[in-house]
Amino acid sequence: MKFLLVFDFDHTIIDENSDTWIVKCAPEKKLPNELRNSYRPGHWTEYMGRVFVYLGDNGIKEDEMERTMTAIPFTAGMVDLLGFIGKNKELFDCIIVSDSNTVFIDWILKAADFRKVFDEVFTNPAAFSSAGYLTVQNFHAHRCAKCPKNLCKRKVVQEFLDKQLERGVSYTQIVYIGDGGNDLCPVMFLKKDDVAMPRQGYTLEKKISQLAQDLSPVACSVLVWSSAIDIMSYLKLLIK
Question: Domains, the chain, ranges and CATH?
Fold first, then answer.
């Protein structure tokens, strides 16, 4: 009996968006208008690439970026929840599927000593160039019309489950914990025994509610959370 916990990262594990938080490193803590206005819907990763060039051009170094990122607060109750999961790893496999990047997530998890809670992290690959600039790439290519072009979370979860099955691992239940619009695609893939846990007041909760109003509700159960303590309470019931 094993459960799979799938976490989003921004506004779910941490209480901010890591990509917008990094702007605190910029001169006067803001970006020039023409850079801000260069974002095109569905092309966030390319936009962040330009943001990282701007930071590099302004002499912002890796250590300053790391200091800024590791100051992001965790969501209420999240430290307790991750501690609880860490103590019960024989029951829970735990992955992150995020539109952030490998550098930011590694910094934040390592600083808080939570890296070992997660079996795998699926996010946009990032690295520092020889010139000291942070570069980021799309996670993968996909054909899903609903998702941003760099990441379809449903595809990631499906491929992870397929790989696990090949290893002889299947799950009693999948619990998907997220907040954003790009979490809807994987939630719609969940089965009736699975659980979606959207964060209260965020886009994912609103989109799931809208589907129910349109009489095409998601197949899985839905449990809304406002503090990660709500998630922990559910997991404790699950393993009783």
Answer: 3-15+73-123+148-239 (3.40.50.1000)
pLDDT at 215 over 90: no
* Contact between 84 and 168 (Cβ < 8 Å): no
Identity (one letter) of the amino acid at 191? Answer: K
What CA–CA distance (Å, rounded) separates 105 from 17?
A: 11
Catalytic residues: 8, 10
pLDDT of residue 133: 96
When computed from its CA atoms, the radius of gyration of the chain, rounded to whole angstroms, is: 18
According to the model, what pLDDT value does residue 42 have? 81
Angle between helices 62-69 and 102-111 (to 10 degrees): 60
Strand ranges (DSSP E) for the chain? 3-7, 92-101, 120-124, 126-128, 134-136, 173-178, 195-198, 221-222
Residues making up the binding site: 8, 10, 19, 99, 179
What is the Cα–Cα distance from 168 to 20, expressed in whole angstroms? 40
According to DSSP, the β-strands at 120-124 and 126-128 are: unpaired
Helix (H, G, I), strand (E, B) or coil at 46: helix
Instruction: Note whether 153 and 182 are within 8 A (CB).
Output: yes
Tell me what pLDDT residue 216 has. Answer: 86
pLDDT at residue 13, rounded to an integer: 98
Residue 149 or 171, more confident: 171
Q: How far is CA 181 from the centre of its chain?
A: 12
Q: DSSP class of residue 127? A: E
Centre a 10 Å sphere on the Cβ of residue 102 and count the other Cβ atoms it contains. 18
Distance CA 153, CA 85 (A): 22
Residues at the annotated binding site for substrate?
Answer: 19, 99
